[in-house]
Amino acid sequence: MLPDVDAGPAVLNRFKHAHNDYEHPRPLFDALDKGFESVEVDVWLNGSDIGVSHTGPPFKGSLKALYLDPLKARVDRNGTVNRNGQPFFLWLDLKQGDQALLDAIATQLAEYPMLTRFNDDQASLSGPVTVILTGDDRGKKSLVDRAQPRPYVRDSNSYSPMDPPSDSKWGAYALSYPAFIQWSGEGTIPQAQQRQLTNLLNGAHQLGRQVRLYNCPKTKAWWRAAKASGLDFIGGDDLAGIAEVMAEP
Fold first, then answer.
1. Distance CA 161, CA 178 (A)
2. Fewer C-beta within 10 Å: the chain N or C terminus?
């Protein structure tokens, strides 16, 4: 059980997150049509380019064609990604730690001015789209150690109350649900499990980091509990179901 932690900074937004977004019939656009503010994309090295798929070849397409160019076009046209003006998050799940993939990501993302830029010694320059690196631990840490300004920040797949505060390199957590919560997602969340979830979120928010959980129950009961608890990114594969719950008062 995590120690009790008083509530951290107020959570102003809860974002709808499309897990493995590229698996939908219309990558990116199916999520945008339902008002999602966050998508997750698995990326691999494909020659000198960045390919998108779950397991490598064959690829669904390139990161540039499926995501970066359409997001840029939308920002160029509207000044924002979503109609409501909410920030948009593009999670890049590094499926490899190859130096060539890291170089391709750094080079390609630098070409897109709509991405948030992170600086070590001054305020970051907020953009309509924020890239969060997840996946391969060595790879994402190597990328955020590169010269500033950087068009991405990283997450961590582990959490400790003793972690340092958020900074320009490390801004989020992506954590396995079963490592913290043992509720099936059916019925009402048990009091002990609710307390565990609350302590996790309070602790992460006190450190200034947002939280995404994966391997979660695929139920409306879970999404409602997550929403009520202040989980920052509420995600899964059922875009319509998540959108319905998030639209509830």
1. 18
2. C
Global pTM? 0.95
Pair 222, 197: CB distance under 8 Å: no
Q: Is the pLDDT of residue 7 over 60?
A: no
How many domains are there within the chain? 1
Angle, helix 220-229 to helix 239-247, in steps of 10 degrees: 50
Domain hosting residue 176, numbered range: 15-247
Kindly state the tokens that stand for 248: 């509830």
CA distances from 152 to 13, 16, 56, 118, 169 (A): 20, 20, 23, 7, 8
Q: What is the pLDDT of residues 47-61, one digit of tens each?
A: 999 999 999 999 999
| Distance (Å, whole) CA 139 – CA 125 | 23
CA distance linking residue 168 with residue 118, whole number of Å: 6
Task: Give yes or no for a contact between 212 and 155, defined as CB atoms under 8 angstroms apart.
Answer: yes
Q: What is the CATH number of the domain that holds 25?
A: 3.20.20.190
